[in-house]
Amino acid sequence: MTHPSDTRAYFFKIDTTIKKIRNALQKQFNDAGFDLTVDQWVVIDHLFRNPGISQNTISEMTTKDAPTVTRIIDLLSQKGLTERRMADNDRRKFLVYLTPAGEAKHQEVLPVVSAMRRKGWGNLSEEDYQHFVRIMDSIYTNVSE
What we know:
mainly alpha, about 65% helix, globular, MarR family winged helix-turn-helix transcriptional regulator, WH_DNA-bd_sf, transcription regulation, DNA-binding, WH-like_DNA-bd_sf
């Protein structure tokens, strides 16, 4: 017997929605002259909320591979937005922090990101959000097992 999900291309719907959001957000960044990619923003946002985390932790949080995260952090460091500091308890490990310029960039970009989130959510309700999170969490768990 065919399962109902066999004929529904929900992964395609998720993927195209994510791409649409990323492209729209990147256009907003470019139009505002932020000199950031969406991936760089994601790392900056995680560092703002979790200062002094390792590159491995950033990889896990962003679901990006280690070489990609290293490249992003290198670029952000070249822009003066992040810095690596040796961990106090392990001299082989580096922790990543936003610089004051990185914190200022976060504050500059956040209103644009927030506006895009509001636009994307439109007139959907809190109940819609709870259903959305439940469904996405279920899909995530199902494909993680």
